[in-house]
Amino acid sequence: MTAPDGLREVDVLTVVSVAAVTPTVRRVTLTGTAEAVAAAGPTVNLLVPRVGDPAPRWPQVARDGRVVWPIGAHGIALRSYTARRQDPERGEVEIDFVLHGDGPAAAWAAAAEPGAVLGVAGSGDLALRPASWLLLVGDETSLPAINRILAEAEPTTGGLALLEVAGPEEEQPLAAPAGVTVRWLHRGGTPPGESTLLVDAVAALDPPGGDVFAWVGAESAAVRTIRTDLRSRWGLGRSGHHAIGYWRRGRAMSPAG
Ligand SMILES: Cc1cc2nc3c(=O)[nH]c(=O)nc-3n(C[C@H](O)[C@H](O)[C@H](O)COP(=O)(O)OP(=O)(O)OC[C@H]3O[C@@H](n4cnc5c(N)ncnc54)[C@H](O)[C@@H]3O)c2cc1C
User: Fold this and answer.
1) What is the pLDDT of residues 93-141, one digit of tens each?
2) How far is the CA of 240 from the centre of ligand 1 (A)?
3) How many Å lie between the centroid of ligand 1 and the Cα of residue 233?
């Protein structure tokens, strides 16, 4: 509800179950009102409380979407995630968290159990333009988004998905149209954010002609290099690609308050 000062309370989602998807990905199923679930994606700005905080001091949200933080310490971090599945009728939303070992969101997800809460400060779309040929490039953090893109693509869509994960144990089943080739790239012992697998794989491709859209979500430095390749060698303009850093090696996305 929006108060006369233009500020509204954040939606709060409550964990109903957690499950291991792979050794480093934990699926958290949350429940909320139909409206809150419908508004929590596809990309979602989560308000992540400190682990075990029974009564988080939530911020409020201004009319323009700005988060208005409470005065003083609150321990809440704002992080971007992807609703892998939203079911407003059942009041359920699923989010897959990479347990990368550091940071408030990964710590929250590792400890999450039924009854834990998350706030929702806003949402966005996946910035995809449907095209007859898609290039999808990502790592574990963008698999939920790429999964949604593939699941929602026209059955006649062709393309290539280049997906970097640690090893075969981190691969996940994807519902891709028959014409989309899914290629898993294993970084093995190389730490996340330090491999050049995605950059090299895109550099090795010959740009296809025709109606192409490229979607890239991975570590920021890799995304920057791939974006440059797509803009120069592939000649893709703004409407032909969406390439954004999903995380930054060695840097938190924003401090917790
Ligand atoms: C639109 C969008 C959607 C996203 N969707 C998802 C999603 O569905 N699932 C998901 O898991 N992530 C997703 N991410 C990525 C997620 O927001 C970042 O990984 C974020 O940094 C996690 O916050 P944190 O509090 O755990 O770590 P932070 O406090 O941000 O970072 C702490 C430390 O952890 C490191 N770090 C952060 N992420 C990783 C990683 N994946 N591997 C190794 N080290 C890491 C940082 O470099 C830093 O050193 C998405 C990002 C965007 C922009």
Assistant:
1) 999 999 998 899 999 999 999 999 999 999 999 999 999 999 999 999 9
2) 25
3) 29
Instruction: Ligand 1: list residues with CB < 6 Å.
Output: 43, 77, 79-82, 96-98, 100, 102-106, 141, 144, 192-193, 246-253
- CA 177, 230, 84, 171 torsion: positive or negative? positive
CATH assignment of 8-124, among 1.10.357.140, 2.102.10.10, 3.20.20.10, 2.40.30.10: 2.40.30.10
User: pTM of this prediction?
Assistant: 0.96
> Is it true that the peptide bond before 70 is cis, omega within 30 degrees of 0?
no
CA distance 241 to 149: 14
Fold of 133-247: Rossmann fold (3.40.50)
Q: Distance from the CA of 179 to the center of ligand 1, in angstroms?
A: 30
